[in-house]
């Protein structure tokens, strides 16, 4: 996909890095990569870092060690990235459940919540076999349950974007909001 060139419109940058949050399937990795490209920031995906560091897939960590242990690894991974500059970090959907992670995000990152309708997420995720929280589950019911737990934390984000349209449109909305934050801080 060809990325639109928005960087000419965005000359000012806030010192904090950017963290993309939201449910699985909301587009955090794709949008994060596009934002990083537009801002000339580095891109990190917390799940990919965890897989590299543990030499295990997220699915296998869940099965072998459980969700609680995965969340500890995830928290440590995010803490280790807190002093990185000019980065975009895509987080796992449940990362915000950790109070320590939320504290790190608030202090060191501009958070962006990609809000996506649960029915759209269901369609995106119905053929996904690598998501441990969805195996042998009614996807829509599981998403509703997760949303009931997580939404209050997602809504604390600095920028909230309804991610229903094209990735290019979502990036355009982000850059407009990002520049407005920058103007408020100057």
Describe the structure.
- The chain has eight helices and five strands; from the N terminus they run βαβαααβαβααβα.
- By secondary structure, the protein is an alpha/beta fold.
- The chain has a single domain, classed as P-loop containing nucleotide triphosphate hydrolases (Rossmann fold, 3-Layer(aba) Sandwich).
- Helix 1 packs across helix 8, helix 3 crosses helix 4 and helix 6 packs across helix 7.
- It starts with 16 loop residues before the first strand and ends with a helix.
- The N terminus is likely disordered.
CA-CA gap between termini: 34 Å
Secondary-structure element string? EHEHHHEHEHHEH
User: Which topology does CATH recognise?
Assistant: Rossmann fold
CATH evolutionary superfamily: P-loop containing nucleotide triphosphate hydrolases
Whole-number mean pLDDT: 88
Low-pLDDT stretches: 1-13
This entry's quaternary arrangement is single chain
Radius of gyration: 16 Å
What's a concise summary of this model?
With 186 residues, this protein is an alpha/beta fold. It has helices at 28-39, 46-54, 58-65, 67-80, 99-108, 118-125, 139-154, 167-185; strands spanning 17-21, 42-45, 87-90, 109-115, 159-162. The model is unreliable at 1-13 (pLDDT under 50).
Task: Give the topology.
Elements (H helix, E strand, L loop, with lengths): L16 E5 L6 H12 L2 E4 H9 L3 H8 L1 H14 L6 E4 L8 H10 E7 L2 H8 L13 H16 L4 E4 L4 H19 L1
Parallel strand pairs: 1-3, 1-4, 2-3, 4-5
List keywords for this structure.
186 residues; alpha/beta; Rossmann fold; five-stranded parallel sheet; 8 helices; disordered N terminus
């Amino acid at each position: 996909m060809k990325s639109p060139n928005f960087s000419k419109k965005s000359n000012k940058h806030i010192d904090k890095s950017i963290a993309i949050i939201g449910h699985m399937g909301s587009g955090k990795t794709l949008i994060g990569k596009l934002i990083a490209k537009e801002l000339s920031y580095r891109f990190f995906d917390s799940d990919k870092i965890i897989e590299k560091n543990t030499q295990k897939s997220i699915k296998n960590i869940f099965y072998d060690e459980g969700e609680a242990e995965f969340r500890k690894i995830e928290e440590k991974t995010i803490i280790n990235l807190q002093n990185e500059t000019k980065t975009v970090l895509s987080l796992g959907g449940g990362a915000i459940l950790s109070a320590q992670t939320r504290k790190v995000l608030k202090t060191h990152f501009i958070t962006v919540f990609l809000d996506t309708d649960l029915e759209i997420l269901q369609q995106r995720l119905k053929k996904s076999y690598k998501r441990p929280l969805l195996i042998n589950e009614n996807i829509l019911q599981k998403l509703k349950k997760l949303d009931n737990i997580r939404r209050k934390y997602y809504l604390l984000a600095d920028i909230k974007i309804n991610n229903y349209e094209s990735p290019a449109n979502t990036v355009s909305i982000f850059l407009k909001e990002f520049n407005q934050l920058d103007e408020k801080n100057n």
